[in-house]
Amino acid sequence: MMHIDISKIAEMNHDYAIHLATFQDILTYKNNSFTLKAVSNKEPFEAVDFWRNVSLAAEILLKASLLKHQIPFFKKRAHGEYGEKVIAPANPWLEETLNTLQIEYIAQINTGTVSTALRSAEEMLFEKISFDPKKAKLISEMFYIIIRTRRNRNNHFFFPNQGSIEMSEIEMLFLPLLNLLEELYSHFS
To answer: Residues of the chain with pLDDT > 70: what percent?
Structure first.
């Protein structure tokens, strides 16, 4: 039986979040910062892809931050005893978390929703690393706006009114959120 080593899962998810955020060449990532690259006319499906990817990038970056700063937010999924077994030998905290939750298979890992991850950050992470309370509050508020306006609509169905790129939304909501999350991830690195 093959074992999947997830010792560096925080770093891998950080890299994946960057990939998702920059995939459509609208945003770029350099020197630990997201910036606006360019916006050309996008077809409606491409625009919805961007909104979905950038929303998911923010969620994954939040979850990567939780893992990096050793905040347990995994739950054990029932009936997941199949596929590859999971180990984390180079990450004692994560290995202990897996053992405590009795997670043996990667299919048993439930990372929860963006709302539950945000709740873990609000209840444990921000205080643990002494993150600026104003920035923490801003992260929460921005996520709640995205959850209500973009995230769930774009992930589960196509709506034509979501099929355009709104520069003001990128500049005032998504870029600041991604950069705050990057700061959160990099805190005390």
So the answer is: 96
